[in-house]
Specification:
It is elongated and about 140 Å long. Strands 4-3-5-2-6-1-7-8-9 form a nine-stranded mixed beta sheet, with helices on both faces. Strand 10 and strand 11 form a beta hairpin. It has 23 helices and eleven strands. The two termini are 41 Å apart. By secondary structure, the chain is α/β, with parallel strands linked by helices.
Length: 731
């Protein structure tokens, strides 16, 4: 079975400073060892390479040698000096284990003051059972679930006594490549290999790679795994075991060359120890060390006598030096890591808000969120983007900037492509032809907006192949004229204006679709940011916010259609003096064109008082007779057609500018951004105040996972606060 070995007293004990820093790290390991990488020494290797014997030499703790009790989990062995002698054994639960399992394994605790091989073996059997590990006689519990062969919990062994030296080492299960029927499986092979790799990967870990002396180290998988975790091989030390099994002279020389350093690629080099064999199980550690010294004094191993790398004493001294040096080097960084992690944990707890066990705390929780949302909304409308990191990281949430961009696109689209036919005065202008509103206005896809948007509203009528506007006006006039002398009915202006503005609706509704989707996108992402609790967010969104948001979007869309009806379907009307200005300019332009055709090009000279020419200006000269005979010489219908065109053009320009302004001001600014019924004001403190007790409980009550997370964060924060006090020397 195994034996209790003798004391581990050594010639040189660590000084008070080293002892204090080692004690601090052990306290930290208890508090935060599973959450922050601590300086540590990890023993790794294949099964049956002598790992247990090396650990025995380093710690004085003799592991049971029963195959059923071989390492099935990581084992943390801590030695410390105390007046009384004994061993305490407990289990550190894996951080990802279920809460109930963590509580269960935490209850395991055994203290031994009188140690026998039988009592130690029983402790390991009880620990295996507490962790739920199967063996040859115990494969399935009563519920029929297959038990695992290995566990990710950590067995913590504290060995204390008056002659112990402060030291901590971690042993992980040995790598194996063949499953054992009824005990291990193919999946266990991968699990152990991954466990070994996870313990080796951190830069604060010294890797003690154990290998037998009767094989070439260059062929050992454990060194290849160490190379992956430690590419520079600066924190890996190799330990060769069982040199008595290296019978061939070639294998002996290979081992010696590695220890001396002629074949070593490790900065920390190779050490070699002589294990106690099964036949020497009853010998004390001192007796075993004496046998080891005698072995290394004989040829060919005596060549290693002056290297300081042969024997358990040399190994123990060196690894303790390495561990102390590593701890001193990493201690300042460790403090920074603890402070950073503590800040992160506190931030996560702050985001969760106060515990929500009654309607008062639930309402306060929702009120805090609604205030945060309103702050984001207000800042986004005022372009105050320095108030939150959200705006720095997400430019798509700079709401008013995105709205202004859309407004400008809308205004340009109405100006360049809003008319059905170009006016006569636009002939030859550089207008944008063939531009589709769908290329100007892009919507963010949200399924909940599909019922708000009507695809038929954004279909642009095909105006290709349309006749010239003057031909169109002539046709309208001929089909509608009466016996009026040189005039036309006012209804014709309505008919022509409606035809000329029939692209306004698809352009306007495409623009509204984009604004609505932009506002909705902002609201969705802002809610995601201020409400980290997914359950609360879903209940708040689907149960209370979404329906009201959809109503506010419909009001805005309906108002845009209302403005379209007023502008296009009603009687043309304006008090804007620009209508007359535009009309007079059009009439004056025709008069000037007639005069230019009738007159003669001439230059007009301007002279000073002395008769000197100071300026010449090109002009058109008309004689009085030509001026008296000035006429447009056109038919009555042609005159009416041109006049109808000028009225239509003048009114269209005034109406277009007015319409674009009121759509932006009313349908967008009022209904979607700043008005009382704006969707940005849906999630407000007033909405929270209107919730009854049942609604509050439905939205904001904490479910079991949230309560457990809050409790876990509380425990973690306390542990990290205690760890920080330890690091500062006050814990």
């Amino acid at each position: 079975m195994g034996s209790i070995v003798g004391s581990t007293a050594v010639q040189e004990q660590p000084n008070a400073g080293n002892l204090a820093i080692l004690t601090k790290v052990d306290k930290l390991r208890e508090l935060i060892g599973t959450k922050v990488a601590l300086p540590q020494l990890v023993v790794v290797g294949d099964q049956s390479t002598g790992k247990s014997s090396v650990l025995e030499g380093l710690t004085g703790f003799g592991f049971p040698r029963d195959a059923e009790l071989c390492t099935r989990y990581a084992t943390q062995i801590t030695c410390r000096r105390e007046v009384e002698e004994g061993i305490d054994v407990s289990i550190i639960p894996h951080n990802d284990a279920a809460p109930f399992e963590q509580e269960r394994v935490k209850k395991f605790h055994v203290s031994l003051r009188e140690m026998t091989p039988e009592s130690l073996a029983q402790v390991f059997k009880d620990a295996n059972e507490a962790m739920g590990i199967r063996n040859s006689t115990r494969s399935n519990p009563s519920d029929g679930v297959t038990l695992p062969a290995f566990s990710e919990h950590i067995l913590k062994i504290e060995k204390f006594g008056p002659e112990e030296e402060h030291f901590t080492v971690i042993d992980v299960p040995g790598i194996f490549r063949k499953e054992t029927e009824g005990i291990t499986t193919e999946a266990d092979i991968d699990l152990v290999r991954n466990m070994v790799k996870s313990y080796m990967k951190d830069s604060r870990t010294i890797i003690l790679a154990i290998m037998p002396s009767n094989v070439d180290p260059a062929t050992q998988e454990i060194l290849k795994l160490a190379k992956q975790a430690d590419p520079s091989m600066t924190r890996t030390m190799a330990v060769l075991t069982k040199p008595d099994l290296a019978i061939e002279r070639t294998m002996q020389q290979i081992a010696i060359d590695h220890v001396i350093g002629t074949r070593s690629d490790l900065l920390l080099g190779y050490y070699i120890v002589k294990n106690r064999g099964p036949d020497n199980a009853e010998k004390t550690l001192e007796q075993g060390l004496a046998d080891e010294r005698k072995f290394f004094s004989s040829s060919p191993w005596s060549a290693l006598r002056h290297t300081g790398r042969a024997g358990t004493d040399a190994l123990r001294t060196r690894v303790r030096e390495l561990l102390i040096d590593l701890i001193k080097k990493e201690f300042p960084k460790l403090k920074a890591d603890v402070v950073k992690e503590l800040s992160t944990l506190r931030s996560q707890l702050d985001k969760m808000g106060q515990s929500r066990s009654n309607q008062h705390t639930q309402r306060a929780y929702l009120n805090k969120m609604s205030e945060a949302f309103q702050t984001l909304a207000r800042d986004s409308l005022n372009a105050y983007y320095t108030s939150s990191k959200l705006f720095e990281e997400r430019h798509d949430l700079r709401l008013i900037t995105r709205v202004v961009e859309a407004n400008e696109k809308y205004s340009d689209a109405m100006w360049h492509i809003g008319h059905t036919r170009p006016f006569a005065s636009d002939a030859g202008s550089d207008e944008k032809k063939g531009v589709s509103p769908h290329t100007e206005f892009e919507c963010i896809d949200y399924p909940e907006l599909e019922e708000i948007f009507d695809p038929s509203d954004t279909i642009v009528p095909d105006v290709s192949g349309q006749d010239d506007i003057m031909d169109y006006i002539e046709g309208v006039y001929k089909e509608s004229r009466g016996q009026d002398l040189g005039t036309f009915g006012g209804a014709l202006v309505s008919t022509m204006f409606k035809e000329q503005s029939k692209k306004w609706k698809p352009i306007t509704m495409s623009y509204m679709n984009q604004i609505v989707s932009t506002v909705h996108h902002f609201i969705v992402e802002a809610i995601n940011d201020i409400c980290p609790d997914e359950r609360v967010r879903d209940e708040l969104w689907n149960g209370y916010l979404l329906e009201d948001l959809q109503k506010s979007y419909r009001r805005a869309m309906d108002h845009a259609k209302f403005l379209l009806d007023i502008e296009r379907e009603g009687v043309p009307m304006t008090l804007n003096h620009y209508f007359n200005d535009n009309l007079q300019k059009s009439q004056s332009k025709r008069l000037v064109e007639a005069m230019e055709k009738l007159g003669m090009e001439n230059r007009v000279e301007t002279k000073d008082g002395e008769g000197n020419v100071v300026n010449q200006e090109a002009g058109v000269f008309l004689s009085r007779a030509q001026l008296n005979n000035l006429s447009f010489n056109m038919a009555n219908s042609d005159h009416v057609r041109e006049y109808m065109h000028d009225i239509l053009e003048s009114y269209y320009k005034v109406s277009r500018k007015r319409f674009v302004d009121v759509v932006c001001q009313q349908a967008v600014n009022h209904f979607l951004l700043a008005g009382e019924g704006s969707p940005l004001k849906t999630f407000s403190t007033q909405m929270v105040l209107n919730l009854n007790e049942d609604q509050l409980d439905m939205i904001a009550a904490e479910d079991a996972p949230v309560k457990l997370r809050r409790e876990k964060l509380g425990r973690d924060i306390k542990n990290f606060e205690d760890a920080l006090r330890v690091l500062k020397g006050s814990g």
